[in-house]
Design a protein that fits this description.
With 501 residues, this protein is of the alpha/beta class. The chain is built from 17 helices and 23 strands. Strands 1, 2, 3, 4, 5, 21, 22 and 23 form an eight-stranded mixed β-sheet that branches.
């Protein structure tokens, strides 16, 4: 009898092992993996040991450590299911027309997401959007989430004066996104549950949630209601740092009140600059056609050092958003000054002299390989004059940095297989590989998609947590198409099935 979802198999039978830095003697031979109390207790040749209890038949598939997405905005990604996709919009007029034909949500607003205006032939204006959408409050969220285009009705609803354009950038844009994401739990939690189930079907056993909210409350509520599809580590933003310190939260602690250890406290999250698509990432050279625009630092170095010092002293890791090379330099300076531990999020443009500092300082590079493929044309255009290295995955790995892969969903879909394919093959859709010298090998990509990252990749061995995924192809030998289309037959968290095909 085949196991069902939520059951806990005692044996994962007839599987092949794969992964980075294996030390087992089995090669590609079939093995049985024996599990008890959420941990791997033994691995043996198939049928060498009695198969007691519930058996999950792997049928010769490949067993890998469970996958993690190290950067997700959980509620915003879940709500994307209700919002109009604008990824195919090729111009401002096209995006406005899509929104004209979009039905309002029950609260009376139209919300679209995922547009990329950096290379549009026409500029967004209020006239274009107002003509298409009229008096229905309409919000278009940039794919990078660092800007929002609102019609006049939406601007007035949110308390902003119309300026003829309707584009809000950085903090005002984040504030609007926070308001849009502040839906009632009876709406958001079912969508989060569906999001998590979709992730489990891709072999995901955990994620890092960087929603701009007091996330402990939400995760405790979900856990108390029975949420058990994956593990979560949640971020804490600067406006909540004092509260987190006062209440004694430390990185790694279980969320209080959830009755589960699946949700845990993560890191202090600080956004220090903008983005490539919004042309606000802090860079050493100006953006083309705009000689005074070097992007923007949204947190100065003294403030960043103060935040990280207080977080470190309280037992909190730091996760510092830095996209441009100037922002990455400042973030590394702050890690060096404070002795903080944690990650730089994104690291999309890094000065060559700064690349070895990640490894020397022990700072993880939490990167999103699909962004390189999504943004290749923008990078070649908007960062053409930059001298730093864009998306330096291979250089970071070679210098000893720990790579941790994620999606930044909803910026890119929550799909670790797409991230691995982008990192290894640096292409999508049949195009010539982009910056191919920055590709990484498949073992590094798989390790970077597990909890510990490439430098501390999860392994399948006795004593390890039984967080596992059963897939159709060996990820270390898969083609780009096989990675992107990987079929996952089963996913296991703490020995319990969260997905079974």
């Amino acid at each position: 009898m085949s196991p069902a979802r939520s059951e806990s198999p005692s044996v994962v039978a007839d599987v092949r092992l794969t992964g980075a830095e294996r030390t087992d003697p089995f090669g590609s031979d079939l093995v049985d993996v024996h599990v008890a109390d959420g941990f791997i207790v033994d691995i043996a040749p198939a049928r060498a040991l009695p198969r007691r209890g519930l058996v999950l038949d792997g049928d010769g598939s490949w067993l890998i450590p469970g996958l993690w997405d190290h950067h997700v905005h959980v509620v915003q990604w879940a709500l994307a299911a209700q919002r109009q996709s604008l990824g195919e919009a090729g111009s401002a007029a096209h995006a406005a027309a899509i929104m004209r034909d979009t039905a309002p949500l029950p609260d009376g607003r139209r919300i679209g997401t995922g547009f990329r205006d950096a290379l549009w032939p026409d500029a967004p204006t209020s006239d274009i959007l107002d003509e298409a959408t009229g008096e229905v409050p309409t919000y278009l969220i940039n794919a990078d989430v660092h800007s929002v285009w609102l019609n006049t009705a939406a601007l007035r609803r949110e308390g902003f004066e119309p300026d003829g354009v309707g584009i809000l950038r950085e903090d005002p844009a984040f504030e609007v996104s926070r308001r849009l994401n502040a839906v009632a739990p009876d709406i958001s939690d079912p969508l989060v549950a569906q999001m998590a189930q979709d992730a489990a079907a891709r072999g995901v056993v955990g994620l890092v949630d960087l929603d701009m909210a007091w996330n402990e409350e939400a995760w405790a509520r979900r856990a108390a209601a029975g949420f058990d599809a994956l593990r979560a580590e949640f971020g804490i933003y600067p406006e909540f740092l004092d509260r987190a310190i006062a209440e004694g939260l430390q990185t790694g602690d279980p969320a209080r009140g959830g009755g589960s250890d699946l949700a845990r406290v993560g890191a202090l999250k600080v956004i220090t600059d903008g983005s490539l698509g919004t042309r606000t990432a802090a860079c050493s050279h100006a953006y083309p056609g705009d000689p005074h625009n070097h992007g923007m630092l949204t947190v100065d170095l003294a403030t960043l050092v103060d935040l990280m010092t207080r977080a470190t002293g309280a037992g909190l890791a730091s996760a510092i958003h830095a996209i441009g090379d100037v922002a990455n330099s400042y973030a590394l300076d702050a890690f060096a000054a404070t002795g903080a531990w944690g990650t730089i999020e994104h690291a999309q443009l890094v000065a060559h002299a700064d690349i070895p500092r990640f490894g020397r300082l022990g700072v993880g590079a939490s990167v999103q390989p699909e962004h390189a493929i999504d943004d290749r044309d923008m990078t070649d255009s908007l960062w053409a004059d930059q001298t730093a290295q864009p998306y330096p995955l291979r250089s970071l790995a070679d210098s000893g940095a720990n790579l941790l892969f994620g999606s930044d969903a909803p910026v890119s879909p929550l799909d670790p297989w797409a991230a691995m394919a982008a990192a290894v093959y640096r292409t999508r859709g049949g195009r010539t590989p982009w910056q191919e010298h920055q590709s990484v090998d498949a073992a590094t990509a798989l390790g970077a998609s597990t909890h510990g990252g490439s430098a501390d990749a999860a392994r399948i061995e006795p004593g390890a947590r039984a967080d596992l995924a059963l897939c159709a192809h060996d990820p270390l030998a898969a083609s780009e198409a096989e990675l992107r289309g990987m079929t996952v037959a089963a996913t296991i968290v703490a020995g319990r099935l969260t997905h079974i095909a």
